[in-house]
């Protein structure tokens, strides 16, 4: 796939450069995947298939106007060249009808980027056999996706980027006979049989606690541990506007008070947009090189995510952020709390495996609300006593990631995006767990 796909993209780019007339510019994005998909129910295959697809995003620019069209590729060079030619003609007809865009910013730097992370993955049949063997009679319901994903970018300025990375993602739930469930994920670029077996063994141990009588709690503040999956939900919500140059410029960021110096987070908090070593390409869909950015440094504000449009509107240097200016490869620095000491340090309180339905209850104050989900437990004296009934929480990020944050775990968990909307996505998080001195439950 690597050589053929790259040749296909380069050939189309070369044709497009020669097809331009004076005054025209273009940008051309490429997306492709070859993915195996397997759906499990009761640890047995219920659906399996393979998807191979490729598409182009063509943007034509002239006199401050721009128009864009997406087209699917067939893999047949002559057919795809004709499709690209037809798209070019259609965009030429549309452009004169559009008004100039005052915030259009076309990068004229002729940068180059090339990255291959094509780690060998096991045949999907091997994975299926291991899942069935290790799960045994467990009621495992899940979804496995694996294979290489390709991204490319080229422009009339001479910029050219190529990125291919293979990865796998097994996202599953285990159901107890009483209907309760817990959720887990095993993902990465190198499938390790022992790694999956360990992750499943941990989930199996938690499943036994779901058979105990459910504990309901009165509203109030409780000590709490947020597992990496729960912390991920909090940080993904924070990512929508928290680090956005546009949101900060318009005074609409949930971290406005942090950036104005009115509030701070815990010095334990170091957050990075960690492009290097991730599955992200080293360039954005808007044609700017990406770089590693420190978003939070010891609880203090760091870099903002600046898209091309925000760069033009607010006079900032673009740094390869996506158009929606949310982190795509978020990593949090680990702490000193060993996993084996976690329950003892928690003492009495909440072990929260997952959260869901998160939203802002007071965006300017960075207050968020949501529900506990799946494997969440009541802990007393360092021992799990009962599964928790679903509860709603409402609290400030300046407390959860600030004054009440006691420790972060040494171990971090990699989570890859499970989104397959139009195509497999390559976003990720790498997060520790968080021990909190308090979390406010409301009902």
Automatic annotation (TrEMBL):
<dbReference type="Pfam" id="PF19289">
    <property type="entry name" value="PmbA_TldD_3rd"/>
</dbReference>
<dbReference type="InterPro" id="IPR045569">
    <property type="entry name" value="Metalloprtase-TldD/E_C"/>
</dbReference>
<protein>
    <submittedName>
        <fullName>TldD/PmbA family protein</fullName>
    </submittedName>
</protein>
<feature type="domain" description="Metalloprotease TldD/E C-terminal">
    <location>
        <begin position="219"/>
        <end position="440"/>
    </location>
</feature>
<dbReference type="InterPro" id="IPR036059">
    <property type="entry name" value="TldD/PmbA_sf"/>
</dbReference>
